[in-house]
Design brief:
alpha/beta; Rossmann fold; 3 domains; about 20% strand; Protein-Tyrosine Phosphatase, Chain A; UDP-N-acetylmuramoyl-L-alanine:D-glutamate ligase; about 475 residues; six-stranded mixed sheet; nine-stranded mixed sheet; about 30% helix; 15 helices
Length: about 475
């Protein structure tokens, strides 16, 4: 835990008692603050009490007594309208911030010689893989590394701050909206496509939230930015003109005069202006696909900015195991490969998986995001057959009509069984059963992790039965949560 002492002896409201809220409450209490933790959910309050975090109804208190409101990133800050606790805080001038801001203030309070190195990663897609890959490279280089934020542990649950440590922090746009004083030694912005517009109001606000990752950087710091989309390219040009920090463009497909690019299987380092091939990405099986090539370029640039040598980075790329539920190789049965990409909760993420494999038995569906799957049309010729599940099955069937064969499977267990049977009997040289739903999970599952775990279990059952398949269990009819 990282104790937060800034509010010692003062009253602080913490609203939203999931992972980050509980960590913030504990860190503030450890630093001597009087913590008033609350959540609108009875279940969340009971879970907090069970976890040793006392609750206090902040709705019944005089808000002028609070020194700060620590807000969970899942709670609306501005759009579609501020949550009532934000309105109450604003009315009396109580500052609103998140757990990342508490962390940043704790770092800034240290003497410069005692501060750890901070690496932040954001982007619409790829930030978890890139964060984990950077952490893996740094560990292979012998560094003391802590990985957290929007991935794994909440930032304030990580080991205490000290010089020589490296904190690799995945940052969502929601977290960045609540952060003002974070200064990153290395800041990575991978890519930007439309997402979370309901929470940011429009694309301009979403981009502005992402751009916050470069705030407060100065000479000696590094901004690493993907230039394969218009938003990143424009931001890169802006940063280079301002010349406040070092800027390293990255690309998966463009040759760069300066930066790091992945061209085909080759990772090319032109950070010093002279292009040199430094890695063969075909030797990194967990980094298949163009999107992972961009992740590799970003992680390479970040590690080089932190002084890691090229040979160590190259070796670490090949030993990286990847993350669960992100193009995760589950197994091979009778020549059929099973790939768990349950983390693909929107069409843009699913596109990255569909682009990797030439012949796909695709399991998709759940709770559709805005836009459906129309933008995946270029990949439909790769789909041998689509097995549709969940609420979006009908909508997806309409989108695929006349362009790919469709099976209305209904639930995941049935989809896996049918997809395996079809792939095994297809005669295709390298058939792939791909779970890449392009949907949120909460119509039939607790979370995308639960969905991916169920997929693994289905594959294990097929393997255990000698390839004879499994009988589908009853499907849960009601949502279990709203985590996607």
């Amino acid at each position: 835990m990282i104790p937060i002492t800034e509010y010692k002896g003062r009253d602080v409201a913490v609203f939203g008692l999931a992972r980050t809220g509980l960590a913030a409450a504990r860190a503030l209490a450890a630093g001597g603050a009087r913590v008033h933790a609350w959540d609108d959910s009875d279940v969340a309050r009971a879970a907090a009490e069970a976890a040793g975090v006392p609750t206090s109804d902040i709705n019944a208190r005089d808000w002028r007594s609070f020194a700060a409101l620590i807000l969970s990133p899942g709670v609306p800050l501005t759009f579609p309208e501020p949550h009532r606790v934000v309105t109450l805080a604003d009315a009396v001038g109580v500052p609103v911030m998140g757990d990342i801001e508490l962390f940043a203030r704790a770092v800034n309070a240290l003497p410069a010689t005692q501060r750890p190195k901070l690496v932040g990663v954001t982007g619409t897609n790829g930030k978890s893989t890139t964060s984990a890959l950077i952490a893996h490279i740094l560990r292979e280089a012998g560094k003391d590394v802590r990985l957290g934020g929007n991935i794994g542990e909440a930032i304030l649950d990580l080991a205490p701050l000290h010089a020589g440590a490296y904190y690799v922090i995945e940052l969502s746009s929601f977290q960045l909206d609540l952060t003002h004083s974070l200064r990153l030694d290395v800041a990575v912005w991978l890519n930007t496509t439309p997402d979370h517009i309901d929470r940011h109001g429009d694309m301009a606000n979403y981009v502005a939230a992402k751009k916050r990752i470069f705030a407060n950087q100065g000479a000696g710091d590094w901004a690493i930015i993907g230039v394969d989309d218009a938003h990143g390219a424009a931001a890169c040009t802006e940063l280079m003109r301002a010349a406040a920090q070092n800027v390293a463009p990255i690309s998966a497909g463009q040759a760069l005069g300066r930066g790091v690019a992945a061209l085909g299987p080759n990772l090319i380092d032109a950070l010093g202006g002279r292009a040199e091939t430094v890695a063969d990405l075909t030797r990194a099986p967990a980094l298949a696909g163009k999107h992972n090539a961009q992740n590799a370029a970003a992680a390479y640039a970040a590690a080089r900015a932190l002084g890691v040598d090229t040979r160590t980075i190259e070796n670490a790329l090949t030993t990286f195991a990847g993350l669960p539920h992100r193009l995760e190789r589950v197994g091979v049965i009778e020549g059929v490969r099973f790939i768990n990409d349950s983390k693909a909760t929107n069409s843009n993420a699913a596109a990255q998986a569909l682009a990797v494999y030439p012949r796909i038995y695709w399991i998709a569906g759940g709770v559709a995001k805005d836009g459906g799957i129309d933008d995946l049309a270029q990949f439909f010729p790769r789909i041998a057959r689509a097995y549709l599940i969940g609420q979006a099955a009908g909508e997806f069937a309409d989108a695929l009509k006349g362009r790919a064969q469709v099976v209305m499977a209904g639930n995941l267990e049935t989809a896996v069984k049918l997809a395996f049977g079809d792939a095994r009997g297809s005669g295709d040289p390298h058939p792939v059963v791909l779970l890449s739903p392009a949907c949120a999970s909460y119509d039939q599952f607790k979370s995308y992790e639960d969905r991916g775990d169920r997929f693994r279990a289905c594959v294990a059952a097929i393997a255990a039965s000698g390839g004879e398949g499994i009988a589908p269990p009853p499907m849960r009819a009601k949502p279990l949560s709203k985590k996607s």
